Amino acid sequence: MNEISEGENTIILYFRKSKQVCIWTVKLALTCCLPLALQQKMLKVEHIGIAVQSLAESLPLFEKLLNTSCYKIEEVESEQVRTAFFATGVNKIELLESTSPEGVIARYLSKRGEGIHHIAFEVQDIESEMKRLAGEGFELLQEKPKRGADNKLVCFLHPKGTKNVLVELCQEVEVNK
Ligand code: ZN
């Protein structure tokens, strides 16, 4: 009874081989598909936005704090805001000063004072990420990505749906585009 016939041996060998093939197929699928799936997600915290009353007053403070110089000051007219950027490792800090008493930052400051205003996540494909998040029930503040500071396409999520955290999605755009 312990003897295995040649036929049975062939069947056992066949199953062993097909098991191996299955493992290879799963490994191959994971190697190929996982990076594609990851592309759809938030890549990293790109920057943290901080609302300030005055850039002139806050710039020296943050230069001292971060021990680095501000690398860019840029006005975004559509948002009535002037921004200043600091590089901190792989992330950035964005200071935001209002250029008008009616601007979004001025209104934020009058309600909540200075402090962290938003967290920006870098995404690979902002439109597909907006579609994904809208499908998950998040409220987008823009229908289409708009041009933001520091060569970015941006879109914000309504903070009511994100535990009162204003979330910005941003995608790097090539300069002169
Ligand atoms: Zn930002």
Please give the structural blueprint.
Layout: H1 6-39, E1 42-51, H2 55-66, E2 72-76, E3 81-88, E4 91-98, H3 104-112, E5 115-123, H4 126-135, E6 146-148, E7 152-157, E8 167-172
Parallel strand pairs: 1-4, 5-8
Antiparallel strand pairs: 1-5, 2-3, 3-4, 6-7, 7-8
* Distinct ligands, ions and cofactors found in the model: zinc ion
The number of E-state strands comes to 8
Note the overall shape: elongated
Radius of gyration, taken over Cα atoms and rounded to an integer in Å: 25 Å
**Weakly predicted, low-confidence segments:** none
Strand content: 25-35%
| Amount of helix | 25-40%
Give the helix tally. Answer: 4
Biggest sheet: strands, sense, closure?
8 strands, mixed
Element-level helix/strand string: HEHEEEHEHEEE
**How confident is the prediction overall: mean pLDDT?**
87
Structural class: alpha+beta
Strand order of the biggest β-sheet: 2-3-4-1-5-8-7-6
End-to-end separation in angstroms reads 77 Å
Structure description:
The protein has about 180 residues and is of the alpha+beta class. It contains four helices and eight strands, in the order αβαβββαβαβββ. It has an eight-stranded mixed β-sheet with strand order 2-3-4-1-5-8-7-6. A hairpin with a 2-residue loop joins strand 3 and strand 4 (about 90-100). It is elongated and about 90 Å long. The structure holds zinc ion. Zinc ion binds near residues 49, 94, 120 and 168.
